Each structure stands twice: as C-alpha cells, then as structure tokens.
Amino acid sequence: MGVADSAASGGFEQYTQEVYGWAYRLLGRHHDALDVVQDVFLKWDAQCERSSPQQPRGWLRRVTLNRAIDLQRRRRFDQAQPAEHAEAIVPADAGARLDQGTLRDDVGAALDGLSDAQRSVLVAKVYDEMTFAQIAGELGLAVSTVKTHYLRALRAVRDRLVTRWAEEESL
Amino acid sequence: MTCQDYETLMADALGDELSPDDRAAFEVHIAECEACRLEYGSARQTIAAMRELPGPTRVKVRREGNRLVIDETGEADSDTQEESTDMAAGAPVVGPRGLKPASRLSSGVFRYAASIMIAFVAGYAVHAGLIIKDAVRNDSGVVQPVTIEPADEPQDGSFQRALAHAYQRNRGSSGLAKCLIAMAHETR
Q: Complex ipTM, two decimals?
C-alpha cells in the first residue's frame, strides 16, 4: 500500500501544475481550481489502486474537464440571480481607468455565460493551443461542431469586451 | 460563396489551422467583405486580450496522508514572464498555454499505427520466390521472424501465418490496407 501511495502521489505531483492550470483557465477562480485539483487527486489515487492510466496526461485532462464542468454547473445552480451576479462584477465606476482585474472579470463573466462545450473548446484553443481535431476527440464532438462552438464562444467574449473597449475610448 | 460559407475558414483562420490554399481564399474574401474583415479583426483582438490575462499561479504540492496539500508559491505562471525567471525559481515552466506541441503528439493511436508500419517496413522478401522471411507481431505484440515456404499452406488460423500469406500473395504491394484486406480474406 505504501508503494502504491508513493507511486500514485509521485505520478500526480508531476501533473499538478497542469491540472491546476486547466482548472483555473476553465473556472477563472483560484480556490475553485484548487477544489478541482483535490477532486482529481482523489480520483487519481482511486484509479491507481486499480491500475495506473496508460496515458496519464490524457486521463487527468479528461477528469479535470469533467470536474471543472461539474463545479461550474453547481456554481450556476447556486446563484440566485445570474443577472445580478453579472452586474456585480462590472466596475461601478465606469469612468475610472479599467485594469487587468476588470479585464479578468469581463472575460470571466463572458466565459460564465458560455455553454460547457463552448467554454471547454475556447479554453483548449486559446490557452492550450490544441487543434480542432484534438479537441473534438477529447470532447467526443465532430470537428465542425467544435469550430462552431469556437466561433460562438469568441463572439460572446468579444461582445463583452466591446463594451469595455468603448468605455476605454470614452475616457 | 456567401459569408456563411466562409465560417469554417474563419474558424480555421482564428485557430491558426488554415491550409495555404484556404488561406489564399480567405484573404481574398476578407479583403472584399468588410463584415468578415471586422469580425476577424475583433476576434483576433479578443484572443489577444484573453492571452494578456495572467496565468494561473504556480503551486507546490505535498502529500499528507490521504490528503493533497497545495501551497501557492506566490509566483505567477504567465507567458508575460521571462522564462529565465521561472527557470531560476527552480520550478518547471508550464505557461497558461500548456505543454509544448511535441508532447501532445504522443498518442496511443499514433504509437500503435507507427509500430504496425515499422513491423511491415522491417520485413523483407527474398525474390527467389521460394522463401519469404518477415518479421511480424504475434498476438502478444512480440516481433518474431516468420518463414513460409511457397508450398506451405496455413495449417492453422494463426495471425502470423495469415499475415505472412497475405504478404506473400500481395508481394510488391506494400500497402498496409491491401495486406490487411487480404489477411481478412485469408482467415475466413
């Protein structure tokens, strides 16, 4: 058991930063990403007690995506008024200079409004630089569907940022 | 062609997956179509803005019993940081864009297909027409030499003999697909 523990934890440690990064990009929140890392670690431990995944990185990425999507759905369900939540993160002082924090808020709010598939596709393309074919294989979608998700997700984020850019120009 | 017809090319262009031929057609279109040109430009700005965001912070992990303890190092893990800074910190560099492309190529399907091709390439035929020697993988995945005399007929339905016969009957046809199809007929 000790050997299995050592092997499992050693195997997971080398991927921890990646798992955290994937979760962070999907969720946009540090503590939510940490929660996902913990969940994935527990699943990794349980899996390694049966048999180590032949492709650890692919296995971890799939599990991370699923856990992040689950957490995102729980977050949406727990929100009483999504519209109020969106308003709360828009800077109250529109005349003030917008900074990185509000950019993150704007992008984060735009990502929150996407479907699970759209968000997964957009994050995988923009941050992980996966090909459409790779993303399609990972999500079990047709390549054409992935491309459609990508365009729609980009448009949604762009629409959010257009408001921000217009405000900046008016300063 | 309408703008809708260029949607796929737009996605490919924004995903940096345009083929040279498609790139030429796409560039002609956006030069002529203001709406698509604006859409492309704004989408590019959006991608750039997303990539400006600081990446996830660097974390360190240690195990305490059945629990994983994750500590932040306080260092940002961002493309905007100099790689030398990350290296000096002694931590592996994993930017917000994930691993380098080479590490994503090692899929199980790719390796399996490569091993099959190597097995066929590794074989050779003695053109006397009398003997074929080849190296094939048995059911356990172990490469073993196989010698088949022309007069030999397959005595059993083993994969090795079926594959060697398929190779013999399709001598000169090195296509994997042809050999597999012939093998399928052979083993019926």
A: 0.74
